[in-house]
Structure formats: C-alpha cells, structure tokens
Amino acid sequence: QVQLVQSGAEVKKPGASVKVSCKTSGYTFTGYYIHWVRQAPGQGLEWMGWINSNSGGTNFVQKFRDRVTVTRDTSISTAYMELNRLTSDDTAVYYCARDRGGWLFDSWGQGTPVTVSS
Amino acid sequence: EIVLTQSPATLSLSPGERATLSCRASQSVSSSLAWYQQKPGQPPRLLIYDASNRATGIPARFSGSGSGTGFTLTISALEPDDFAIYYCQQRTFGGGTKVEIK
User: Fold this and answer.
1) Shortest CB distance from B43 goes to which of A44, A102, A110?
2) What pLDDT was estimated at residue A114?
3) To bridge B6 with a disulfide, which of A5, A31, B27, B94 should be the other Cys (CB 3.0-4.6 Å)?
4) How far, in Å, CA of B80 to CA of B84, rounded?
C-alpha cells in the first residue's frame, strides 16, 4: 500500500535550518508530485509548494521561495524539504502529501513537528 | 490567488444530526474543489474530489455539491467518528470548519 513516512521531530534555534525527509513506498515515486503543507499549532493548513518527483522541478509560494530547498532522491523514493533562516513563525507540523493528479492529496505523511525556539 | 472561505467556523451538533458545511471561492473554480477531514494528531484525509465524488473508502453519508464559487459538504447523519475539522481545497486550503459534539 502507499506509504509516506517522514523524519522525526526537530527542535531548532532561530536562524537555523531544518531538513525534513519523506520516504515513500508502494507506488512509482517518479509518477507523482509531492506537495508540502504545514500547520502551525491550533491553525489551519498552509500549502507551501510541490516538487515534480520525476524532473525535480519545484514551485513554492513566494513567501518561502528564497529560503526553501526541495530535492528528491529517486533511488530511494524520498523527497526532502529544507527550510532555512527559521523563525518562531515556522513552528509547525510539516506534512508531505502525494498528488494523485489535479492537486488531490490522496496519501499523507504522518507529519514532522518542527519547533523553533531560543 | 483564489481564496476559499469556509463557514461556519464551528458547528455544534449531536450524533445523528445532519451537518452542512459551506465553502465559498473568491472566483470560479468550476468543479475543482476537494474536501478533507482532519482529526487531532493526524494528517488530513481526502473525502471528496471534483466537488461531488467520494474518495476511495469514504462512507456514503458524506456528500459534496456545488460548482463555480459555492460548495457544500453534507454529512447526512453524524457518527461519533465524524467530529473533526473539515477543510475545502482548491490548490490552497480554506480556513476549516470544526464539527464538535453539542
């Protein structure tokens, strides 16, 4: 079955970087985009951007573009999202999600809590 | 950018009652709208796509309708497992509606 398994919780200081991994299984990795969505404590879902798992092309919301790096390793069916220059506003649970087509997220990772605190 | 506005923010109902959730888009999205359910500590789950199609494994008590700028998610008779937060999505997400036990 389709599975997305994310890396564990992180605690970072302001100004640091965090890298979250999303290991997939149960389907052809290069056949689907991976999206990244975050959720601040007690808040709603915020779509961040996507990576084309085949070409490696990416598209992220303007507010993240200058400090996010998203990559993938097709040999191990894993996507990565690195967010730089962290602030307390980046404290959130970060999710990866598979796009089955048409921006429909049919499988999700379990979420990676990231806490930014001095 | 299309903005999705959900209402009400909170819906207080009892098990067995009918829930009606609304999602309004700032401009027409045709039928390209999805609904997700999220329970505490869990990732969202896809319920409805293309406004009215149930995703795999979703019970028939969940139904979606609408097109253009106005959409509705209906839960015909709430079960205890249905109390959760519901989000509409067309690329970005709406702010969510919490369905809580009255």
Assistant:
1) A110
2) 98
3) B94
4) 10
Q: Answer whether A40 touches B (CB < 8 Å).
A: no
Q: What is the pLDDT of residues B27-75, one digit of tens each?
A: 999 999 999 999 999 999 999 999 999 999 999 999 999 999 999 999 9
Cα(A40)–Cα(A46) distance, integer angstroms: 8
Query: Using alpha carbons only, how large is chain B's radius of gyration in Å?
Result: 12
Q: How many degrees, rounded to 5, is the angle at CA A76 between CA A70 and CA A81?
A: 15
How many C-beta neighbours within 10 Å does residue A86 have?
21
A78, A23 in Cβ contact below 8 A?
yes
Considering CB atoms only, which of A47, A104, A109 is closest to B49? A104
- Whether the CB-CB separation of A51 and A58 falls below 8 Å is answered with yes
Tell me which chain B residues have a C-beta less than 8 angstroms from the C-beta of A109.
43
Q: Examine residue B43 and say whether the peptide bond preceding it is cis (omega within 30 degrees of 0).
A: no
Phi, psi dihedral angles at B82 (to 5 degrees): -90, -10
- CB proximity B76 to A under 8 Å: no
Asked if B55's CB is within 8 angstroms of A103's CB, the reply is no
